[in-house]
Amino acid sequence: QVQLVESGGGLVEPGGSLRLSCVASGLTFSSVTMRWYRQSPGKEREFVADISTGGGVTDYGESVKGRFTIFRDNAKNTVYLQMNSLRSDDTAVYYCNTRRGLDYWGQGTQVTVSS
Q1: Could you give the CA distance from residue 91 to residue 86 in angstroms, rounded to a whole number?
Q2: Beta-bridge partners for 50
Q3: What angle do CA 38, 43, 49 make, to 5 degrees?
Q4: 44-73 pLDDT, tens per residue?
């Protein structure tokens, strides 16, 4: 079955950086678009970024453009989210997602931006 496992979250000060990872299994990773979403308490899940199968096309939510970068390593079945210039409103649980008929989600990784 499809499994997505995120890691790399933690506590970081405003202006800092983090890199999230999501390892996928149970699917042909190089054939699927990968996405990152996030959800803060009391808010709906928000699109963060996505990346095409080969990595050549990316898209970002307005709130993270210019600060976050999504990239992938198909040899490692892994998608990454490099987050720079973090702000307090980036605090959320970050989820990895892919779609193959159904939506598949990881368990999420908590990112807290606070001084």
Answers
A1: 9
A2: 35, 59
A3: 25
A4: 999 999 999 999 999 999 999 999 999 999
